[in-house]
Design brief:
Helices cover 74% and strands 0% of the residues. The protein is an all-alpha fold. It has one domain. Helix 2 runs antiparallel to helix 3 and helix 5 runs antiparallel to helix 6. It starts with a helix and ends in a 9-residue tail after the last helix.
């Protein structure tokens, strides 16, 4: 986290406004996570800080690109991905390995300072992995997982100006494994009327980790994400209807696979037959 924060500060020498505000948002997410790790910050103030970080980034992105669509996405994407990475940081190596793969994928989808920053994010995660896998000696905590989620949002948003709006959904494909598991599990919990904002161990990755172990599950998720990255890069090249079709087929396949595996893992509650 400190390495990426330092990189933001360094990049601010070239574009002080956007990278300076990006560093501010990252620091805000990290401070909120630290507070929650040590003092158990209530959910709504915590979420408010995530939205504030997204709002600060949205202002910077609008000033940089003039795109209200990108700014609106920042307000949504930052709190969503901060919480997704927090939810999915429940076994050794998963959150860091997924962030490393996403960083590499998005580096291949952009150029310039954003590409360099994506490579720094990926390298930081890869440097952390030996301490977090196969058996964790150091943990991310809410500080680390929240920071990774914020960085993923920042990287996706930094890639958007290079592509037409119709292709923007393809840039979420490397994040698909995390988004599907977090989103579908949350949806099932809300359907069952549970206190969805409270900690739990009902994610698909948690169910299979109890059976197969952390390392195998982390590797399986990495394999699926690697496949998503390959399809994304091809789809971006194809563009148009062909590219979107490829991304759509993969998204539907991911959702269907999650349902099948969730049922197999004994988690059919909340899923209609």
């Amino acid at each position: 986290m400190l390495a990426t924060l330092g990189c933001c500060v360094w990049l601010s020498r070239m574009d002080a406004f956007i990278w300076g505000w990006a560093a501010t948002g990252l620091a805000l997410i990290a401070i909120t996570g630290w507070w929650d790790d040590h003092r158990n910050l209530p959910v709504w103030p915590r979420l408010a800080m995530h939205v504030l970080a997204g709002g600060l980034l949205a202002i910077a992105l609008y000033a940089h690109s003039g795109s209200w669509q990108i700014s609106a996405l920042a307000i949504v994407l930052v709190p969503v991905l901060v919480n997704v990475w927090n939810f999915m940081d429940g076994i050794d190596g998963l959150a860091a390995s997924q962030a490393a793969l996403c960083g590499l994928a998005l580096a291949g989808a952009t150029s310039g300072s954003a590409q360099g920053f994506a490579l720094v994010v990926a390298a930081t995660c890869l440097g952390f992995l030996p301490f977090n896998l196969p058996q964790a000696n150091i943990f991310l905590g809410d500080v680390g997982s929240g920071a990774l989620g914020y960085l993923m949002a920042l990287l996706v948003l930094a890639c958007l100006p290079a592509y037409p709006v119709t292709l923007w959904p393809l840039l979420l494909m490397p994040l698909g494994a995390m988004l599907v598991d977090a989103g579908m599990t949350l949806g099932c919990r809300m359907w069952r009327g549970e206190r969805w904002w409270q900690p739990h161990v009902q994610h698909l990755y948690q169910r299979f980790a109890r059976r197969a172990g952390h390392g195998w599950v982390t590797a399986a998720y990495a394999g699926w994400t690697a496949l998503a990255i390959g399809i994304m890069l091809v789809a971006l090249r194809l563009g148009g209807a062909e590219g979107l079709s490829a991304g759509g087929v993969f998204a539907v396949t991911s959702l269907g696979l999650w349902v099948v595996l969730y049922r197999k893992a004994g988690g059919s509650e909340g899923i209609s037959s």
